[in-house]
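User: Hi! I'm a student and our assignment asks us to look at how structure tokens line up with a sequence. Could you show me two examples?

Assistant: Happy to help. In each example below, the sequence comes first and the structure tokens follow. Example one:
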Amino acid sequence: MMIFKSRKRFGQNFLVDASIIEKIMIAINPKSNDSIIEIGPGLSALTSPLLNKLDRLIAIEIDKDLAQILRNRHSSEKLILIENDAIVQDFSLFGSNIRIVGNLPYNISTPLLFHLMSVADIVIDQHFMLQKEVVDRMVATPSSRNYGRLSVMLQERYKIEKLFDVSPESFNPKPKVFSSIVRLIPLSGNRNRPNNYSFFKKVVSAAFSKRRKTLRNSLKELSSNINWSKIMISSEDRAEDISVDQFIRLSDHLENDLIV
């Protein structure tokens, strides 16, 4: 058996727990003709069972040595391997109705999640293994400890469901933190959405950049003339108290105020 030493710079922790792999496969429930893209196939923990179910699988691997192991292990007719960094990969090249899965490197998980938002219109669903702390932030509700910018930005675009936790003992080498499996399903185009998405991002970022301050103070550089009663939000609330729909309402109001 080939021994592969994990590389810290790629954040590699390889899933080795067969029971967890089975639970992930049940969650994904792949069909033979699904168009699935796996990010970070590693040593084939998910790749092998996926290939047993699929006509073909596209996998993106940044590590050249791992890529060679994968090529030696799997048929090139079944596994389409792309050597690239997923954070710069153009996922729109894979067509429509794609499904994305992967054990995401913890050191780039947040920027990668934001990168994938740009192709949410062509995605059916996403199933990821992430650091538990990140998943708890993704699914957090207003006024809870974990609710923040990541919660708002992702929940505006996806229905997010935390499926189950995974202990460090399920990996080799063992990470220092717990992990979680999360499912993201893009919301439809007719959802409640901001009129100007770029401005919405700016408002959310400004609000959480000074999260201990009231909205009146954290947003005063954007506008000092907000009609709080009109948008039914208290100026004394903090960013962590505001729901996604309220942030959308606030963003639209601010934008209209700036245009006027």
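Example two works the same way, sequence first and then tokens:
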Amino acid sequence: MIRVPSPAKLNLFLHITGRRENGYHELQSIFQLIDLCDWMEFYPTTSKKVLIDGLASVDLQNNLIYKAAQILKPFAQKQTGLKINIEKNIPMGAGLGGGSSNAATTLIVLNQIWQCGLKTEQLAQLGLQLGADVPIFVHGKNAWAEGVGEILSFIKLDQKKFIILKPDCFISTQLLFSQKTLTRDTKPTKFCAYQLKPSDFGNNFEHLARSLYPEVDEAMKYLDQFGTAKLTGTGACVFIEINEQMNIDEILKYSPCKSYLVNSLSESPLIHLEV
């Protein structure tokens, strides 16, 4: 049995800079890996089936873990059946990339178990078929992201702590993208500009999430008492960077919804995995 962590991420900002002819949106963002992790256990079996335990709410055919296994099968030199157990700590539909991370973890682990022999960049390209966030977790490094999220420039970020709140709602990414008031023409910028003044960088989905989901608005108003609250991805999670003046215990205690205290990661714990 192989037991490995599957980390979450925050979008430190998220700008929509344009729209492609195929309908996909161009964006700019910073992916920050954090130490909030799901845990995944891989049990090779003698059957040829891939079974997943711990995600009963997701149909197998739509499960990104299952899909990741399927796209790797043609490359397998030593294919076995699998039972995959998952301990979910990353909330679903939260903008923290839990599903994408689970898919990337599956690609990384099965590439070794099945002796596929694929390089990291090849795994990232396969992962892009599953979702725009999957490559960042395959590479396991913090990055400045462009394109639909697949063009990555790896960056060094300062070590930080964050408080994350998970409002009691499930945000529809499709609904947010369909809104006519979504800003789709934010001027492209550079990482050096972010480094000079990160407070100028926000999330184009924030006003929509706050207006369509009162729970998100409540969580952001709560965190805004202590600093500048931000939405991660298309939500629903919101977060704040911790400073020395904050009473962390009090903020967590009186949170209007589920809260998490997390640390930034300089790289994924999977980056040096050998099985």
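Here is something you could point out in your write-up. DSSP finds nine helices and ten strands in the chain.
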